[in-house]
Structures are given as C-alpha cells and as structure tokens.
Amino acid sequence: MDLVLDFCDEVVLTPYVYPASVPEDNIYRQFFSLWLISSLSGAFLYLSCSTLGYIFLFDKKLRLHKHFLQDQEKLEIQAALSSVPGMGLLTALMFVAEVRGYSKLYDHSELQQQGGWPFLASSAVTFLLFTDGLIYWIHRGLHSKPLYFLHKLHHKWKVPTPFASHAFHPIDGFAQSFPYHLYPFLFPLHKGLYLGLFVFVNLWTVAIHDNDYRLPKVLQPVINGCAHHTDHHLFFNYNYGQYTTLWDRIGQSYRHPSAYYEGESVHDWVDKNVLETKAGHTKLE
Question: What is the pTM of this model?
Fold first, then answer.
C-alpha cells in the first residue's frame, strides 16, 4: 500500500492537504491518509463494480421473488456505504504496519532476489489458497451463536443483488478480509501483485452476489461461484467458502447448488410462481 500512499502524497496530500510541519512519515498522518484512501477507494470499487454487475448481469425479474425486499437495492447500498468508514478504519491499521516495514511485501527491484517470475506466479496461487481456507473458518465462525449478531446484516438479503456484496457490519467485513492482510506479514508478496489481488478480491465478492450462475460445467464442483453463494444466503448453513468448494467438502458444509438442478433456481421460482401466474390471469381476462 506504500505505492498508493506515496503517489497520493506526491500528487495531492503533501501539496494541498497537510501543512509542512506534518512530515510524510508521521504515523498519525499515515494512518489518517490510509483510512481516507481505503475508504474512498473501497467505496469507488464497490459502487462501480456493483453497478456494472447490476446493470449487465443481474436478472431484474428476481425483484419479483418472495424473499426480495422492498427497496432492497437502496437498503443494500446504504448498509454497505455506512460500513465502509468502519472497515476502512480497521484496514488502515494493517496498512500502517505495512508501509512502516513490518510486512514481507517487496517491490519490483527485489523480484529476482525473491525467486523471479515463477515465485511471483506461485505466490498468487498460495495467496488464494491461504485466504480461501482462513475465510472459510472465519465465515463459519460468524455463523455461531455468539458471533452471528455481527453477520446477521449480510443475511438480510436472501436473494442478493451485487449491491449486497459489501453490505456487512464493519467488524464482519474486516474479519472476512483479515486473511488478505495477514498473508504478506507471513509470506513474501510482490507489492504490485498485492494491489492486483486486492482488486480481484473485490471483483470476486461482487461476482458471487450477482445471481449469474454461468460457469463451465467441469468447474462447477470445484469453484465456489454465485450459484453456491446464493444457496448460502437461502439455506444459511452451507457453502461458506470463498473461491473453492474444498473447505466446505472437508467441513461437511457443501451443498450442490439448487441452480444446477432443473427448475430449482430462484429464477425458476419467479417463472413458476409469478410470471406464469400473471400470464394465466391475463389469458383469463
């Protein structure tokens, strides 16, 4: 995150925001700047990706589903944006530790020393596997009775739209993102790759809430896609995983998605119980 902070310091923060008496390496300045950057960038990523997903991928007929709330999109956006500053506050604590040199992040000049391009590629895979496992157990823990009050807000949306992707209690949202921040404190990771993975994680979070179930059939048993996560919202105690179904299978919480059975998806429910009924009434009239 020091790459982003250095850029913002050079272009905006040093010349226009902070007085000369507050140096760039001041820890309080760094914390406030990183909170501001993470909050604004988080809100921008959320709104832009969710809006695109809603416009181009989300099937609007799902608004007719019995579990779809009145003004749900508005409520999801309000919940997400009200949580962003709190999530940003907790995230900034991790970012401060990173920019002050406590992590194992390295820049491009150290790439060969760290193992070159093969190591960079392998670290992307280990990052995803590491976070996939930890998020599974954190997510499952948030479903336990003592902690569910933190996660309850996100399950308000039984038929989610992309706008539900970040609609969390701030502590819930940070807890599920914590493995992403933990990884570079334990393992070497390229700074550029870290930023790229951060964007990817946000895109994936939106994607598993867009109710677009398209996935190659060969990958459906392996990838924890939108169909899997939709069943998590509907049936609660299944499919806690983030990217793969591995930990759900190990933890015996895997459920084959309803959407992959003919006539069982939330889209099918709308077709059978709303659209066909309306069509029947129209014919009778």
Answer: 0.91
Q: Whole-angstrom Cα distance, residue 2 to residue 142?
A: 31
Give 176-217 pLDDT, tens digit per residue: 999 999 999 999 999 999 999 999 999 999 999 999 999 999
